[in-house]
């Protein structure tokens, strides 16, 4: 992983993004301490599980196709607030 000082990363942001896309994560430091990592969109999707659509996610649910699910609304009064 290549390391960039924040000032250098700001000045050469497009280069940091290209390196993230082609070479992998790029570490950003401030005063020698790691504060951020720039990663490609592809890596972000892999790490966050964003590879499938919401519809596909819901179809994989163990509750998919069950018609006997009852969702009850909480009927308690809302909390009081002072405005």
Layout of strands and helices, then pairs:
Layout: E1 2-5, H1 6-11, H2 13-23, E2 26-30, E3 33-38, H3 41-48, H4 54-59
Parallel strand pairs: 1-2
Antiparallel strand pairs: 2-3
Describe it:
The structure is a single chain. This protein is of the alpha+beta class and 83 residues long. It has a domain at 2-59: YefM-like domain (YefM-like fold, 3-Layer(aba) Sandwich), CATH 3.40.1620. It has 4 helices and 3 strands; from the N terminus they run βααββαα. The chain has helices at 6-11, 13-23, 41-48, 54-59, and strands spanning 2-5, 26-30, 33-38. It has a 3-stranded mixed beta sheet with strand order 1-2-3. A hairpin with a 2-residue loop joins strand 2 (26-30) and strand 3. The termini are far apart.
